[in-house]
Amino acid sequence: MKLFKFLLIFSINVLLIYSLNTRLVIKDIPIPPLGKFLDPAQGFWQNSEHDSLGYATSINIDGLKDSVSVTYDKNGVPHIYAQNNHDLYMAQGFIIAQHRLWQMEFQTHAAAGRVSEIIGKGGLAFDRLQRRKGMSYGAEVTYKAMQKDPFVNSCIKAYADGVNAYIQSLSYQQLPIEYKLLGYEPEEWTPMKSALILEYMIDALTGHDDDFENSNALNLFGLETFNFLFPEKLPRMVPVIPSGNENPWDFQKVNATPPATDLPTDLIKNILPKPDPDNGSNNWAVSGNKTASGKPILCNDTHLGLNLPSLWFMIQLSSPEVNVYGFTFTGAAGVTIGFNDSIAWGFTNAPRDNRDWYKITFQGSSANKYKYNDQWIPTKKRIEAIKIRGAETYYDTVVNTRQGPVVYDKSFGDHDAKKNYALRWIGHDPSMVQKALLELNKGKNYDDYLKAIEHWDAPPQNIVFASTSGDIALRVQGQYVAKWPGQGKFLMDGNNPLHEWQQEIPKDQNPYQYNPERNFVSSANQPSVDSLYPYWVYNSSQEHYRNRIINRELNKMSQITVEDMMKLQVNSYSILPEETLPILLDSIHLEGLSQKEIKALQQLQEWNYEYKVESYAPTYFQAWWKQFMICLWDEFNKSNVALTSPDEFTTTYIIKNFPDYKFIDVDSTDKQESLTELINYAFKKSQKDLSEWQQSTGLDTKWGNYKGTFIKHLADLGGSLAGFSRYNIQVDGVADAINSTKRNHGPSQRFIVEMTSPPQAYVIYPGGQSGNPGSILYDNMINDWRDGKYLPVIFTGFNRRENDQMIYSQQLKP
């Protein structure tokens, strides 16, 4: 018996020691080694002692040409002062790695399809998709283009040298905690990784399409029904750049030749994952004619996934040639969104169909040849070796055609030997966005802005501009393709050359506004232009609500102040319930309702359409509208093929103007329900769903709880690092409000700048400057972001390095 107890205790101790120091995998989810986390010498506690302002004050870096001064304000924003551009961007690479090394490297692994190297076989499907989409290929061609530009090449090389200088200075004890928990170490940073960071954003902002879903709907319902349910234009659409006297479109357009053949009739069941269609932003600039100061004010907030560490990092970069402040992507040289002493700029996504799919017919099962222009031509194959932690390397053969890589085939996607689909995507083309940003950073006026964004290829953006000289502008900029009407809206025929992309639209024919008569410019991912624009423009996920609120408010405002703009950026009003809730309420039958249901209706009747966290009406409406959409479009939800139901804007148009339309019915019943019956059924169902939600969560149904916004750590796989994330953040707003917050998506930063001399700027984002979860600067801005507060920017001139608001400094020496 004593021997049994000894063996039992010994076994438990061995198991405990093993589990504390070994990275376990349970159901393909990696579990960090708890022992390494708790190790007082090298674990989390050691990392937490070194926050963002606890680094060495004097550092020698090989490769610098001169000394570089770095000062920090109380929010951990570094202000870097260098004597030349080489040192400036080398110091930027060093400083950002010092704060965000793990994040910047992890994002390049994700872009390149190398996550399996870190987390094991649970990342294989993701990695295969990234490789098959052509992410690495796109980064490679972009890097080759950047290498051909001496200035850009020198900047990204200096940046990489700075990152590597920091990596080489690290001991294991100093490694970011994520490396220790996930059990690997950083590798050398190369300029190619900066290209991968750009590809990562191109994918996030152009990687969504509904081509397969559109094809399925077309083949199931017919063209007439499809066009009714998925119209390209509807009343009340407000484009970014309206036609009119300011935009006569008096240019000679390039033409695309349409084909005479029919489209493929495939029905596709399985759709591979795509980025969030709500990835986008708000931006606007108001003329000095509308402001209290007489100077323009520019505003921008970018809507992306909410993660920790934050996507953005704030920085000031100063040299004799450039003095700029703003938000930068970790891994990219220069400032992405920001201002200097003369101009300011910002971005919103400019949605247009940038991805097209082609049906490929192979000659035999070897996929060595495919049919093009009724001839069999050779394919090119790329062997992707995907390293998997704890398992053998997986070799995936990606077949390439004129139309792009074959993503779907018998081994991936729809798993059908007869369904081979190639992707043509703007992400496969070289992008000189890095050059455009570096040129914007040192721009002085409107002409410099135009020259800089001439290099902007992908992702296409609505680029807003303001200057201290009083100009405002907005240009829909990117390298667009001239398409024949309908091209790329559905699956196309890879055999037909006329289905290919034929010609590019000259960039000087892109829509724009410059000092318009209404004294403001604005965009929020709505359609770029109206039907008078000479080119056919299409996108399946255009925005229809935020842009109208912005324009409505700006039209009626005068004597605008920065404080007014702050209030507008966090405006939680939604036009969706304004246009739909009266219809729902007018149709409700009160008989048979419970007291609780009647109380819910009373709160909806008194609601002002603002999504405030303490309010219950937004929850009641969202639950009701969700059930209404499910019931109305159940033909789409129950299909055995991939379909996307009509959007909320089209749904509102249909129920207002065609209340007896054939799809207004609950498909699972034997009778034809009326619109009124469907609305009442959806209300009862929504109230039942809310009761069940409350019972399962134990939470009150106020809007803040029901929405449940959270900001998740990038490595929080299956909740294994939940302590590094923030949950149930009580933040106002909804997806279609200006304050466009969802559960794990929303304004990833907010930026307001008044173009005085020097400009006065205000910023916030939902995170902190440090990537170290143990730092006080890891998530210190979340509460202010939640509450609609801003931080004033400290913007110093090149010759004014000392500032009484700076609390820490570093000297980087050659």
From TrEMBL:
<feature type="binding site">
    <location>
        <position position="353"/>
    </location>
    <ligand>
        <name>Ca(2+)</name>
    </ligand>
</feature>
<feature type="active site" description="Nucleophile">
    <location>
        <position position="281"/>
    </location>
</feature>
<protein>
    <submittedName>
        <fullName>Penicillin acylase family protein</fullName>
    </submittedName>
</protein>
<keyword id="KW-0479">Metal-binding</keyword>
<keyword id="KW-0106">Calcium</keyword>
<dbReference type="InterPro" id="IPR014395">
    <property type="entry name" value="Pen/GL7ACA/AHL_acylase"/>
</dbReference>
<dbReference type="GO" id="GO:0017000">
    <property type="term" value="P:antibiotic biosynthetic process"/>
</dbReference>
<keyword id="KW-0378">Hydrolase</keyword>
<dbReference type="InterPro" id="IPR002692">
    <property type="entry name" value="S45"/>
</dbReference>
<keyword id="KW-0865">Zymogen</keyword>
<dbReference type="InterPro" id="IPR043146">
    <property type="entry name" value="Penicillin_amidase_N_B-knob"/>
</dbReference>
<comment type="similarity">
    <text>Belongs to the peptidase S45 family.</text>
</comment>
<dbReference type="Pfam" id="PF01804">
    <property type="entry name" value="Penicil_amidase"/>
</dbReference>
<dbReference type="InterPro" id="IPR023343">
    <property type="entry name" value="Penicillin_amidase_dom1"/>
</dbReference>
<feature type="binding site">
    <location>
        <position position="356"/>
    </location>
    <ligand>
        <name>Ca(2+)</name>
    </ligand>
</feature>
<dbReference type="GO" id="GO:0016811">
    <property type="term" value="F:hydrolase activity, acting on carbon-nitrogen (but not peptide) bonds, in linear amides"/>
</dbReference>
<dbReference type="GO" id="GO:0046872">
    <property type="term" value="F:metal ion binding"/>
</dbReference>
<dbReference type="InterPro" id="IPR043147">
    <property type="entry name" value="Penicillin_amidase_A-knob"/>
</dbReference>
<dbReference type="InterPro" id="IPR029055">
    <property type="entry name" value="Ntn_hydrolases_N"/>
</dbReference>
